[in-house]
């Protein structure tokens, strides 16, 4: 699989987004999200998403210049995303929420009329630079079956938690409420690769390893009924309380000739100095991580990693070696670039 330098991929992506009418700063935000996902090994949420984003922008299903409407009530920000791409809507909303959290200690953000917003870890790292802890969640188009059912009714509804660490990678928990993110199945279908048994069922409710059949069927919730319950809770925050679409009413950007996505997001920001001094927080965090790292390793294990460590290791490896992209993904990227008269990618860049 050919590998590409992240700097060249970043330049390519920004050029494509600007060619379709996205303002420079917004193009940088979207690109940062995609390339960070690739560097961290989350390829399902990386640059492979660019073609569908751009096509929906060209069709008018995603606004290239959204005008966010933010209404603040104390520590709560209610945001109308004006059907912008989720990365732009979420990043800008957090920019507005950060000073609120710094003043009041916490801020809650409820966003409606948005779209797919990438990985939750991207926003964790945005906020952690301001000495904050973040909880990030989003709903998605229906992708998992409620326990006892056989048709999808809830999204794979991911949630992320981000905690700054003084001397080491940040502690980041970022997971879907399905067995895996649906994006991994989409990528497997594009690359014509089977998926592991236990990830999904086909439209008849039977286990499948065929990603195309899985996309016509549904993902299975992680942990059975517990994952289903967690997906419901996230849907309450991101759909019901945000005033966004929820469940079957959330539209996938992969559906042709469909309407606006109507995705909702929810963020909670905690300003650490309102709870304890940064020095005390650092001591507490160091002690906690040391407790984990000092755990005796199990047989055939190289030791204990805390959430976010392996992600950071992949980041460093790919910064040095490059980002691997399949031939299918490169072709999709070059096809969309050609349609916009943008120079495509070539192997070795």
Description:
The chain is of the alpha+beta class and 349 residues long. It has 11 helices and 12 strands. The strands form 3 sheets. A 7-stranded mixed beta sheet has the order 2-3-4-11-5-6-7, sandwiched between helices. A 3-stranded antiparallel beta sheet has the order 9-8-10. Helix 1 packs antiparallel against helix 2 and helix 3 runs parallel beside helix 11. The longest helix has 19 residues. The protein starts with a strand and ends in a 10-residue tail after the last helix. Belongs to the LDH2/MDH2 oxidoreductase family.
Which tags fit this structure?
single chain; 349 residues; alpha+beta; 7-stranded mixed β-sheet; 11 helices; oxidoreductase activity; Malate/L-lactate_DH-like
Entry summary:
By secondary structure, the chain is an alpha+beta fold.
What's the Cα radius of gyration?
20 Å
Strand order of the largest sheet: 2-3-4-11-5-6-7
The total count of helices amounts to: 11
- Quote the average pLDDT: 95
Largest sheet: 7 strands, mixed
Written as H for each helix and E for each strand, in order along the chain, the element string is EHHHEEHEHEEEHEEHEHEHHEH
Low-confidence stretches: none
In helices, the fraction of residues equals 40-55%
Structural class comes to alpha+beta
Strand content: 15-25%
Strand segment count: 12
Instruction: Based on Cα principal axes, name the global outline.
Output: globular
Please give the alpha-carbon distance between the first and last residues: 13 Å
InterPro entries: Mal/L-sulf/L-lact_DH-like_ah, Mal/L-sulf/L-lact_DH-like_NADP, Mal/L-sulfo/L-lacto_DH-like_sf, Malate/L-lactate_DH-like
Protein name: Ldh family oxidoreductase
Keywords: Oxidoreductase
GO molecular function: oxidoreductase activity
């Amino acid at each position: 699989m050919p590998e590409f330098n992240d700097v060249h991929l970043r330049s390519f992506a920004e050029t494509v987004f600007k060619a379709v009418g996205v303002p420079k700063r917004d193009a940088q935000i979207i690109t940062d999200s995609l390339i960070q996902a690739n560097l961290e090994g989350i390829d399902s949420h990386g640059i492979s998403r660019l073609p569908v984003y751009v096509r929906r922008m060209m069709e008018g299903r995603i606004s290239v210049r959204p005008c966010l409407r933010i209404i603040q009530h104390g520590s709560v920000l209610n945001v109308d995303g004006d059907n912008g791409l989720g990365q732009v809507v979420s990043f800008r909303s957090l920019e507005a929420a950060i000073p609120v959290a710094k003043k009041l200690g916490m801020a809650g953000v409820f966003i409606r009329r948005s779209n797919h917003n990438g990985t939750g870890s991207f926003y964790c790292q945005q906020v952690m630079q301001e000495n904050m802890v973040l909880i990030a969640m989003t709903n998605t188009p229906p992708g998992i079956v409620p326990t006892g059912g056989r048709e999808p009714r809830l999204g794979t509804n991911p949630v992320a938690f981000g905690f700054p660490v003084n001397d080491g990678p940040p502690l980041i928990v970022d997971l879907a409420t399905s067995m895996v993110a649906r994006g991994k199945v989409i990528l497997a279908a594009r690359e014509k690769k089977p998926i592991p048994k236990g990830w999904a069922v086909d439209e008849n409710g039977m286990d499948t390893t065929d990603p195309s059949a899985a996309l016509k069927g549904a993902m299975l919730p992680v942990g059975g009924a517990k994952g289903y319950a967690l997906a419901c809770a996230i849907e309450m925050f991101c759909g019901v309380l945000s005033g966004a679409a929820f469940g079957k009413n959330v539209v996938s950007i992969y559906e042709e000739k469909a309407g606006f996505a109507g995705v909702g997001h929810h963020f909670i920001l905690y300003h650490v100095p309102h709870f304890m001094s940064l020095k005390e927080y650092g001591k507490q965090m160091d002690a906690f991580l040391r407790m984990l790292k000092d755990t005796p390793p199990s047989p055939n294990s190289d030791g204990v990693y805390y959430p976010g460590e392996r992600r950071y290791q992949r980041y460093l490896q790919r910064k040095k070696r490059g980002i691997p992209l399949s031939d299918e993904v490169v072709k999709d990227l070059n096809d969309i670039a050609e349609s916009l008269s943008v120079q495509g990618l070539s192997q070795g860049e």
